[in-house]
Write a structure and sequence with these properties.
Blueprint: H1 2-16, E1 71-80, E2 85-94, E3 97-105, E4 111-119, E5 123-131
Antiparallel strand pairs: 1-2, 2-3, 3-4, 4-5
Protein name: Cuticle protein
GO cellular component, one term: extracellular space
Pfam families: Chitin_bind_4 (PF00379)
Length: 162
């Protein structure tokens, strides 16, 4: 057994060993410096002359409040039978008073209409109206669940051998 270990170790050493290359040398010729460079000539720095800065004069800005009462009116409506989206809105503003209404088709087929007003004295007030009769789809009949009667299956006997 020891001989096999020695043979395997020798094979590993031979496989790991490579060819020896001669060492390369990098040599350069060095010689002492025989002369020195002439030092650079420096003169005193030039003095920069600056002109007196100009002072800009600006007129003082005065804040002016711009106040104009808001006046607008808009409305829009959507009638999309493909998606079932039916709604509309109308709103009017005169200064701080807003009046308007919007309507939405509910999923049960009714139309909900909201009339609202808003002003600084009374705040926001809304009146909701619902028109139409709700229509609900008929429930689907429950499917009968077919269940098989229980069946007894006896296990086959198992015999031990001693």
């Amino acid at each position: 057994m020891l001989a096999k270990v020695i043979v395997v170790a020798a094979l590993a050493a031979v496989a790991h060993a490579g060819l020896f290359q001669p060492a390369s040398s990098y040599s350069s010729v060095s010689a002492p410096v025989l002369s020195h460079a002439t030092p650079a000539v420096y003169s005193a720095p030039a003095v920069a002359k600056y002109a007196t800065p100009l002072v800009a004069k600006y007129a003082a800005l005065t804040a002016q409040d711009y106040y104009a009462p808001a006046h607008y009116e808009f409305n829009y409506g959507v009638q999309d039978p493909h998606t079932g989206d039916h709604k509309s809105q109308h709103e009017v503003r005169d200064g701080d008073v807003v009046k308007g209404s919007y309507s939405v088709a509910e999923p049960d087929g009714t139309l909900r209409t909201v009339h609202y007003t808003a002003d600084p004295h009374n705040g926001f007030n809304a009146v909701v109206e619902k028109s139409g009769e709700p229509v609900y789809p008929a429930p689907a009949p429950a499917a009968k669940l077919a269940v098989a009667a229980p069946k007894y299956v006896a296990a086959s006997p198992y015999y031990y051998k001693h």
